[in-house]
Amino acid sequence: MKRVLIVAAAVLLISGTGFAQGITGSGHDFSGIVAWNPGGEICQPCHTPHNAMDPSTYEPLWNHQVTAATFTLYGSSTLDATDLTQPAGASLLCLSCHDGTIALENFGGVTTGTNFITGNALLGTSLAEDHPVSFTYNAALVTLDPGLNATTAASGLGGTIAEDMLFADKMECASCHDVHDAAGEDFLLLKANTASALCLTCHNK
Ligand code: HEC
Ligand code: HEC
Ligand code: HEC
Ligand code: HEC
């Protein structure tokens, strides 16, 4: 009995939250199981070691066709951010599958794919219903909106909000999500949203 308990405790320690950590087994594990990726490589639909797309525009080592859609942006009477733009940076890369206009298998120069994202993972080209992305979150915005925490506050991920969640001070999809699912959280979240812990990292409500 005692030994069983010790083994169970060891398994718990090793498995952490009990969820798999890393991209394997996550919603972004494209190995083998999906018909549109017969090569079965996980990274290749997004990255390539050689012949990547223009690195001055897309990073890092990007391999997937990028969306050219014009998006409807979020707007509200209480939004203080003043530089909300068309999705850019890493957000544009996410939307190159999640807006449903570019086929999933359009990578490595292929542009003729026929498998598009469906279901809840399809965001479409209207971002009016989605948390805003591609705008600056810095000390000036915190002054305008005291409901935000300073970006020098701890993120709970080891460093500050600016270090761990922002991209050159910008909010992007990857401010809340980890495309590689390092934490093994549901919905590829950067950190668990139990009791809205993710939201409360930035919002001082
Ligand atoms: C679904 C698309 C997707 C897949 C699959 C993917 N990545 Fe990424 N990766 C991205 C995006 C988007 C970024 C930039 C945004 C970011 O860093 O969060 C990135 C950033 C990176 C970076 C630089 C930043 C960092 O986290 O160190 C490395 C290195 C990387 N990926 C390696 C890999 C490897 C290796 C694989 C396969 C095991 C892989 N990626 C699978 C989309 C993907
Ligand atoms: C190469 C295409 C591709 C790119 C690029 C891509 N995704 Fe995905 N993503 C997918 C597919 C396919 C799924 C699985 C959809 C399904 O299960 O119906 C998925 C699933 C997800 C899920 C749901 C996972 C779950 O556990 O339910 C989230 C969240 C997500 N992606 C966020 C992102 C973010 C954020 C980025 C950019 C940083 C991104 N994706 C880039 C193709 C992509
Ligand atoms: C402010 C944080 C935040 C930002 C920014 C954000 N998301 Fe999410 N996303 C979440 C949370 C939390 C969930 C979990 C499900 C829910 O609460 O709707 C989620 C769920 C998802 C899902 C899964 C939907 C489902 O029901 O299966 C996808 C796909 C996704 N996000 C993609 C994106 C993309 C692409 C972007 C950028 C355009 C983005 N997210 C920006 C927080 C965010
Ligand atoms: C990485 C930081 C960060 C995280 C995490 C985050 N937000 Fe935000 N959120 C912001 C910033 C910055 C704004 C822009 C505020 C402004 O300009 O008024 C914003 C805007 C919003 C708005 C719109 C405010 C308005 O006045 O229109 C809502 C609502 C919101 N967030 C809810 C959430 C929820 C719910 C979550 C958790 C799922 C979340 N946020 C997670 C940083 C974040």
Q: How would you summarize what this structure contains?
A:
With 205 residues, the protein is an all-alpha fold.
Structural class: mainly alpha
Strand order of the largest sheet: 1-2
Percent of residues in helices comes to 10-25%
Q: How many strands in all? A: 2
Bound molecules: heme C
* H/E topology pattern: HHEHHEH
User: What share of the residues does DSSP label as strand, in percent?
Assistant: under 5%
Tell me the distance between the termini. Answer: 47 Å
Discrete helix count: 5
Shape: globular
Q: How would you characterize the largest beta sheet?
A: 2 strands, antiparallel
Radius of gyration: 19 Å
Average predicted local confidence, pLDDT: 90
Total domain modules:
1
- Can you tell me the residue ranges where pLDDT is under 50 for at least 5 consecutive residues? 1-18
Walk me through what this model shows:
The chain is mainly alpha-helical. The chain has one domain (20-205). It contains 5 helices and 2 strands; from the N terminus they run H-H-E-H-H-E-H. Strands 1-2 form a two-stranded antiparallel sheet. The radius of gyration is 19 Å and the shape is globular. The protein binds heme C (HEC) (4 copies). One heme C is lined by residues 23, 28, 42-43, 45-47, 60, 90, 93, 174, 179-180.
